[in-house]
Amino acid sequence: MKIDAITIFPEYFAPLQLSLLGKAQEGGLLSINVHDLRAQTKDIHHTVDDAPYGGGAGMVMLADVWGNAIDGVIEDGSDLIILTPAGRRFTQEMAQELSVATHLIFACGRYEGIDDRVREHYSQQEYADRNIRVREVSIGDYVLGGGEVASMVMIEAITRLIPGVLGNPLSLAEESHNEEGYLEYPNYTRPQEWRGIEVPPVLLSGNHGAIATWRSSQARQRKDANSN
Ligand code: 6GU
């Protein structure tokens, strides 16, 4: 999978070089390229935004600068993801869908967002004919300063589903097992007693049927206790 992220803050993406994602890139399973939007500006001030037509608070990012940046990376089959709090909610299901994509482009908006003609332009039939799909995505019901952190959340959730990226493929199998809105059961390791709290005895029983029953009941209780 190839990922291009376009942003005015390329430094935000440094953590993607760490841990399993860094290894996946070294191993060639994944390539992540971060692009500075300002490199596409042609004026001396490197302007990326302007006041909104119709008035109102904040600034809107320039269509032309975004168009130049996206044109530089887009190819047949690309998925263009525009990060905005007004987008469709990112879920595990969307992560699964995107984990089989070949090329993801993350357009990280700041301020009051990107001139909407960018979305409209790349949604046209000529792009659809090239298997290019555009989506506006949000990671949840709260407002961030920009799409950078949101795109990193998506990149982590999506890329760990690519075979070979996650260290332990068994935990993936167990997870998909647990879909259907399931939350996982509580886990324990040594020591058997810590600060006066014992590991639940059923886990030491060696009775695998009883352990499975206990775990699913615990997962259910935890899900209920944490439900909004
Ligand atoms: Cl994608 N962007 C911003 N600015 N805020 C968000 C978001 C995205 N998702 C949730 N909140």
From TrEMBL:
UniProt keyword Cytoplasm, yes or no: yes
Keyword Lipid metabolism on entry: no
Domain tRNA methyltransferase TRMD/TRM10-type: 1-224
GO molecular function: tRNA (guanine(37)-N1)-methyltransferase activity
Oligomer status and interactors: Homodimer.
Similarity comment: Belongs to the RNA methyltransferase TrmD family.
Function: Specifically methylates guanosine-37 in various tRNAs.
Identification of the protein by name: tRNA (guanine-N(1)-)-methyltransferase
